[in-house]
Structures
1.
Amino acid sequence: MSQLTILRYPDQRLHTVAKSVPAVDARLRTLAADMLETMYEAAGIGLAATQVDVHERLIVIDVSESRDQPLVLINPELVWASSETRIGDEGCLSVPGIYDGVERATAIRVQALDLDGKRQLHVAEGTLAVCIQHEMDHLMGKVFVEYLSPLKRNRIKTKMIKQKKDEEREASY
Ligand code: NI
């Protein structure tokens, strides 16, 4: 297994629309394992392939406290979303240190292939429902800050660019 590099907002590659995973094979299983390792290492609860610059419909999630219940969704499709919504604070491994409120459906049903290539129906609510919606947005090239006001988004963009410059300066010593 190996760790992957997570793209950071405002990297334009985060706005790529992902294509369907062509086959659930050894390559895909290795990618899913690497993405899980990357997500656990970064202490995140979800990661979309888009964030590691692979533009295929694959997401990994673990919302458990114990960090031992990985969920891999391949070619996920939203089949139902509740009309009830809730605004909750979200963060993103591609936008480190930023948390803000986003309105999401409180419950969803999603169909996806698992690592054996079998179709599974996932009924989710609470944090898992929010996380799946957040990660599925990534596959459509959407980062959560795009739900915020242009003013907030620009402020975040500026902060991220400065953060990256500071890191590069440190690295060059
Ligand atoms: Ni994210």
2.
Amino acid sequence: MIQALRGMKDILQPQSERFVHIVETASEIAARYGYDYIETPLLEETALFKRSVGESSDIVGKEMYQFIDKGGNDVCLRPEGTAGIVRAFIQNKLDKRGGIHRFYYHGPMFRYERPQKGRLREFHQFGCESFGESSVYEDFTIILMIKDIFDALGIGYSIKLNSLGCPECMPGYRESLVRHLVDIRDGLCEDCQRRVETNPIRVLDCKNGSCKEALASSPLIVENLCETCDADFRRLTKMLDSHSIPYELDPKLVRGLDYYTRTAFEFVSDEIGAQSAIAGGGRYNRLVEFLGGKPTPAVGFALGIERIMELVKLPEKGRHGIYLGVMEEEALDTILKIAHNKRKSERVFVEYSKRSLKAHLKAADRLGARVCAVIGEEELKDSLVWIKDLETKEERRVGFDQLD
Ligand code: HAM
């Protein structure tokens, strides 16, 4: 039997209900924050991700679903959403138009990682990207929006926050970090020894115990920020404080994608095991320019739908909808008309085959319907429908047009 690929999952009821609930809740909140829906292709030129996410990142270096298509193009299934949206932003000339543009999106992302609990090869993100606003209050507002989404979903979390500086302060910091890393090189894991040359900043968040120990006294970016980055970071933490949003400063939070400048954050849950990040994001002021557009400040985030599905509490719906059935075939036409009308306002199940009343009641119960409505021989003669409320157990007969 052919099975779904490793790390890829079908999402069926009741999980699919959680999935839809998360997407609908997040979309509604994003729309209230002024975001418009955007859809971009799943397949993009490989160069897009190499240039944005970064050639030395694990995502690009090890995890891409990359292939040559029939036209000889080097393409790749998107490992994340931001790069494609930045491409669309530039391609549609929104960078030239100026002003503020805010987008939300959701859909599958692909990373060839080692599957484990909470880590899939095909997973789904909901994300937002805001272009054109350089104020750190936009970063704050995005964090507030994620808080609103998680609060609406009934999910607990904590926030980790850092600043990754800008082209003014980052290079100097990088140099002092590399000097330090060279000194402690022997204590680093194999991957990090390589990263000293390719991506020294990533060494900071290595989960390996010996690296953590070796890095205890490493210089920290937050202590080396330029005046503007420092002032922005202070403004951000002040806003979070004044809105009573708790956060933890994590000077070693660097994120797995290379495009961040200044604000970087992660929302984590302690209820889902080792893969605890449920959302991540930050500012990426250089990316639009880097991909060929007019310099445009930008900030965004994405949340992992599958990880959140484990945590979300669905609102209690109880029995709902109406089940319609017949005991005489001639009544089917009437039942179908009632069904069509009822579907305008509620969930409807129709059984096309004639059945006994007992069989209809059993089926309605199994489907979780609130009401079971059946037309038998007598009802057909009298133009009535027999109905039973499966919650209150009340039974009665009503006219075709009085069914409510
Ligand atoms: P990211 O941190 O790589 O950021 O992914 C965002 C979220 O996607 C993670 O916090 C996690 O919940 C989920 N996720 C990531 N990988 C997996 C996986 N293999 N299986 C299941 N869930 C996963 C980004 O992708 C950036 N594009 C976010 C962003 C948007 N930054 C600015 N704008």
